[in-house]
UniProtKB/TrEMBL annotation:
The lineage of its organism: Bacteria, Pseudomonadati, Bdellovibrionota, Oligoflexia, Oligoflexales. GO terms for molecular function: L-lactate dehydrogenase (NAD+) activity. The keyword Plastid does not apply. Residues 3-81 form the Lactate/malate dehydrogenase N-terminal domain. The keyword NAD applies. This is L-lactate dehydrogenase. One of its GO terms (biological process) is lactate metabolic process. Residues 85-223 form the Lactate/malate dehydrogenase C-terminal domain. Keywords: NAD, Oxidoreductase. It comes from Pseudobacteriovorax antillogorgiicola.
Length: 224
């Protein structure tokens, strides 16, 4: 499907994936010089036709692109969202589920921070049906999880998929669908997405993934 900016007129949600793509061995941040300008230009064009739209950014480096899109466009910060660590969190659930032999849907927790190599897992929040992970392992005769091993596996997952098939389209598509559904159904779901922080968690003027309540208006509030 081919179109132009007028075709986006009065959109509720606009998903931006355009930009230079990763090559084998490249780091996501190496795309910044090219992609921040591409994304900022696209967002400003979209504003002319859909000033009330919610912008979902997928283009890497996704958190940096989100920051520049907010700073260089008229859109308010609560309506420009980076997919951030939403995909990293899904990968984390899958990897952890295989280690403790439990359905990923029964695992609670997040990957937070920056999408990519510096992503972090707040292990104190990780639980199985409300039971802290360490307690769950002790009570079920399971070895304790090697936290750094899991974190590294989560960070490397995208690169491993890229090496095998040349892209990572399915995982990120599922994450974008999850975000759009949350917005369209006004679910008020708590999701780890990239938000512009202005004092939250003691951080200012930076886009990082934190647990945020997402609804029809975009980022309704940042959980603390």
């Amino acid at each position: 499907m081919v179109g132009d900016y007028p075709d986006t007129k009065n959109s509720d949600v606009i998903v931006i994936t355009a930009g230079a793509q990763l090559k084998a061995g490249q780091d996501r941040n190496s795309l910044a010089a090219v992609n921040t300008k591409i994304v900022s230009d696209i967002v400003n064009e979209c504003y002319g036709y859909s000033p009330e739209a919610l912008i979902i950014l997928v283009t890497n480096p996704v958190d940096l692109n989100c920051y520049f899109a907010i700073k260089n466009s008229p859109y308010p910060k609560h309506r420009v969202i980076s997919t951030g660590t939403l995909l990293d969190t899904a990968r984390f659930m899958k990897i952890l589920s295989e280690k403790i032999l439990i359905d990923p849907k029964n695992i609670g927790g997040y990957v937070l921070g920056e999408h990519g190599e510096t992503a972090s897992i707040p292990w104190s929040l990780v639980n199985i049906c409300g039971i802290p992970l360490r307690t769950y392992c002790n009570e079920n005769g399971l070895p304790q999880v090697d936290q750094e091993e899991v974190r590294k596996a989560v960070v490397q997952a995208g690169y491993e998929i890229f090496k095998r098939k040349g892209n990572t389209n399915h995982g990120i598509a599922a994450s974008v669908f999850r975000l759009i559904r949350t917005v369209q159904l006004n679910e008020h779901s708590v999701l780890p997405v990239g938000c512009l922080l202005e004092g939250e968690y003691g951080l200012d003027d930076v886009v990082l993934s934190v647990p945020a309540v997402i609804g029809r208006k975009g980022i309704e509030r940042i959980s603390s």
